[in-house]
Amino acid sequence: MLRKIILSVLGVALIIGAIIFANYLIDNKNKPKPVIPKVVKTVLVDTVKNSSIPIVISANGNLTALQRVELYSEVQGLFQTGSKLFKSGQKFNKGETLIRLDASEYYASVQSAKSDLYNSIAAIMPDLRLDFPDVFQKWQTYLNNFDLNKTTPTLPEISGEKENYFITGRGIVSTYYNVRNLEQRLTKYRIIAPFSGILTEALVTEGTLVRNGQKLGEFINPSVYEMEVAVSKSFADILKEGEAVTLTNLDRTKTYKGKVSRVNGSIDATTQTITAYIEVKHEDLKEGMYLEANLNADKVDNAIEIDRNLLLDTEEIYVIKDSLLDVIPVKPVHFSNTSVVLRAVPDGTIILRKPVPGAYAGMHVKSAVNSDNTSDSVQ
């Protein structure tokens, strides 16, 4: 009897527990799911305002001196010590002697030839007095002004045919030009600075035996430099001489002002580029310095310039409409290393100023507001 009572109590307890558990399940089934809050990114924006955008071409190269002279010897001789050392970095003023070779032996042969010319003219003076008294005086004056220690003076002008035959027949004209040729060669034993500048290379030293055709060094004018740059052929018709150019050094710590001095008239068939030469002056510049040049090639009307990373591969950019991202097609006109010039972007369009990671059309965003509650405009 007790056993039946215990089983009856357990059965009632199980039924009550089942009812409670069923009600619990029913209540949980109708409970609303938790709402996951949406993350809205804050983005930097710009308002489009189309304008004329200058096309800036970036190019780079090394500086070379505009005035440069490679020094070669045309004669042979011993390099003599001068007032200044012939060393790299040595400065010379215009007209100063760069190199002087020992010309004592050659100088003696020149003086001998000049003496022969003087003697030849002196030998015909008696015949001139008798046969050509009207031209005697000009030849006598020539002899009086003849100085062996100075450059041979030009022969008197021969006025008549008979005088010409007489003078030429005595070998005076040929002797005269032989002397002038020797004198001209004598000047090659001394190399003079054609302009004020500095030696950048010295290949010989004092006491060296210099041979004919030997390179002696290089001499430059350090006040004016030029840089050769290669520009795309598409700018061949708009790149002009005299165009202002801004140059920067490799560290981008200094800028220099230059101008386009020359533009090559032909296009390189291999690279399809045109060569332009930029002239620049500054006391801080040195030959061989690496500079980057920005050339103003042209202007594009009704366009804007934005960060190159904002342009999608499909030639579209993100815009903001009603706090949602959207895309619009654009027309790229010019690409630089960091930016791109676009057309077909309506004025007043709100676009991104910086790329947004994971952006997609329809994404909720919030525009960052400046202190004056207005967004910047991009041109």
From TrEMBL:
<dbReference type="Pfam" id="PF25917">
    <property type="entry name" value="BSH_RND"/>
</dbReference>
<protein>
    <submittedName>
        <fullName>Multidrug efflux pump subunit AcrA (Membrane-fusion protein)</fullName>
    </submittedName>
</protein>
<keyword id="KW-0472">Membrane</keyword>
<dbReference type="GO" id="GO:0015562">
    <property type="term" value="F:efflux transmembrane transporter activity"/>
</dbReference>
<keyword id="KW-1133">Transmembrane helix</keyword>
<keyword id="KW-0812">Transmembrane</keyword>
<feature type="transmembrane region" description="Helical">
    <location>
        <begin position="6"/>
        <end position="26"/>
    </location>
</feature>
<dbReference type="InterPro" id="IPR058625">
    <property type="entry name" value="MdtA-like_BSH"/>
</dbReference>
<dbReference type="GO" id="GO:1990281">
    <property type="term" value="C:efflux pump complex"/>
</dbReference>
<feature type="domain" description="Multidrug resistance protein MdtA-like barrel-sandwich hybrid">
    <location>
        <begin position="69"/>
        <end position="216"/>
    </location>
</feature>
